[in-house]
Amino acid sequence: MTIKILELFGGIGSPRIALRNLGIDIKAIDYVEIDAKAVDSYNAIFASNLKHKTQSVVNWNLKPDILIHGSPCQDISIAGRRLGADAGSGTRSSLMWETLKIIEDFGKWQPKIVIWENVKAVLFKSMNENFNKYLSEMERLGYTNSYAVLNAMDFGLPQQRERVFTISVLNGQAFNFNLLERLPMRPLTDFLETEVSVQYTIKAPSMLDSIEAPSTKKKFKGYLKIIDDKVYTITTRQDRIPNSGVIDLGNGKFRLLTEKECWLLQGYSEADFEVAAKVSSKTQLYKQAGNSIPVPIFESLFKVLLKDFEEGF
């Protein structure tokens, strides 16, 4: 059986990587991403003759079995937004509703499964009005919704990263997150490079002053945590306060995580990183890792979802 997938806000292809790792026969009918450098990395990783171009989700119309979207977290923070209110406006705040509009426009052919990943804050009181609206709209379209907060640490990665995953099944039963295969957290040393350039050593006094203590510099907020057995949420930049944590080199010296380490801590292989590094800069590689979704979480999700898929739900 060949599974047709559509990735909206596809980034560097975390769900497709997961399916590849599982040996699932898939047809990536398309991939939609507006960040040109992320598109370059995606094309390099999958090295196909079909080269994807930068494009928006607005007015998109295809027929996938599984639709995966991870719209920017700003989308759900706009209080009181109605479905379609900003359709076609091109603003980041409209993109989540564009996805719902796309699903509705499929008509009789609707994706059997829709997966949506977003920040934990969507469940907060200040934001959950719009999250609940999303669930209501999906129910109106015939989907049964289930959601849970999943932490990358529970899927083998030494990264404390909590995100909300919403699984919507067309005319189906609720998804049971308890069926997901959890994995023991691997040692952090499995993900760290043994030889790291001095360019990653922290030299800025403002950052050094903020390690494990609130910063005294007004332009910085928070502090830098020293990494022990795990890193903190991989972000789009490491040279800022706060970040994903710093490595203690001893003798009062500390370093940042490298862009390669950030990719590995999101579940990508060294080979994936190396081909992407040929087409994207250091800054872009950090950004791509920070915007991605941990691959092992998708692997665990797909193991359950595709079993049900083959059984016809």
List the helices and strands and how they pair.
Blueprint: E1 3-8, H1 14-21, E2 26-32, H2 36-46, E3 66-69, H3 95-105, E4 113-119, H4 128-140, E5 143-151, E6 159-160, E7 162-170, H5 205-208, E8 231-232, E9 247-250, E10 253-255, H6 259-264, H7 270-277, H8 282-290, H9 295-310
Parallel strand pairs: 1-2, 1-3, 3-4, 6-8
Antiparallel strand pairs: 4-7, 5-7, 9-10
Helix pairs in contact: 1-9, 2-7
Offer a quick outline of the entry:
The protein has helices spanning about 15-20, 35-45, 95-105, 130-140, 205-210, 260-265, 270-275, 280-290, 295-310, and strands at about 5-10, 25-30, 65-70, 115-120, 145-150, 160, 160-170, 230, 245-250, 255.
